[in-house]
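Can you make up a protein sequence with its C-alpha cells?

===
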Amino acid sequence: MGLQFSIIIPVFNRPQEIDELLQSLAEQTYSSSFEINIVEDGSTEKSDEIVMEYKNILNVNYFFKENSGAGASRNYGMERASGNYFIIFDSDCIIPPHYLKEVADALDKNYTDAYGGADAAHKSFTIIQKAINYSMTSFLTTGGIRGSKKAVDKFQPRSFNFGISKKAFEKTKGFSDMRIGEDIDLTFRLWENNFKTQFIERAFVYHKRRTTFQQFFKQTFAFGKARPFLNKKYPKTAKITYWFPTVFMVFFYFSAIIFFLGIKIFLWFFIIYFCLIFIDSFFKNKKISVAAVSIFTTLIQYTGYGLGFVKGLFSSRIV
C-alpha cells in the first residue's frame, strides 16, 4: 500500500504561526494528496478562523480539545487521522516546498517506521532566532545531530519534525504523558518494539524556536532536566556525552572566577572555543551580528542544559 500522509499539528495560543505554517504547506510540490489535522490544545486565542481560510486549498481538519499538553494533542490528532503515515510539526515551523516529496522519496528508497529531519533558519528570522538555530544545530555545539549528521538506525527524532507510521503509533500508543522529553521517550519505545528510525537530511524545516534569551534558557533547562530521567528509564541509552554541557558549564564559570585571581590559562581555552563559534557562525549566517549573538546563545544553551541536567539528577519524577 502506498504512503498516505496525515500531518499533525498541535497548537496553543499561536494563530499567527498556524497561518504561516499552512501557507507553507499550500506551496508543497508533492503531487499526491495529504491530510492536515490541526489540534487546538485548549487555547484562548483560537486558530479556527485562520484554518477555515485554507479549507478550499488544503485538506485540513480542525479539532478543539481541553488543554493536556503537546504529546496528548499529537496522539489525539493521530487517532483521528485517515492516513497510514503521520508527520508531526510544531506550530512554529515553516515547511520548505520540497519537504513532502523528499520524505516520500527517502521512504521509498529506505522505508522505516519513523524518521526525523533537521531544522534550519529562514531568512525572515530575527538575529536571536538565527543565533539560537546555530547553537542548536552546529557541529561545534551539539555535534551536528540536529543539523546535518546522517544517522540511519539510531537517530532520535524530535517532535518538531517527526514522522511515524500508523502501525508504529498503534503499537507504541504514541507519546507518553511526559511534558518534556516525550519525543525521545517515544523513540526509545520504538526501538524496544524493533521499529527503525532514520534521519532524512533533506527533509528539514524552518524552526523558529524561541524568540528571547529567557525563553531559550527555559527550553534548554527543560531538555537538560529530562535527560537524567530518560537515562534512568532507559539505562542502555545513557551516554557519558550527556554530561558534557554540565561539565562545560562548571569549568567555564570556575575558569572565569579564577581568572580574576590571576590564573588565566584555563579561561583562554574557552576564549579560543568561542572565537571558533564566532567564525563558524559568521561563515554560515554571513552576519557579524548573528555570529556575535551565537556566542551568547551557546553559553545560554550550555548553562540551561547543564543546570537542568543537575536538577534532573535529583528529581524523582519529571513533568
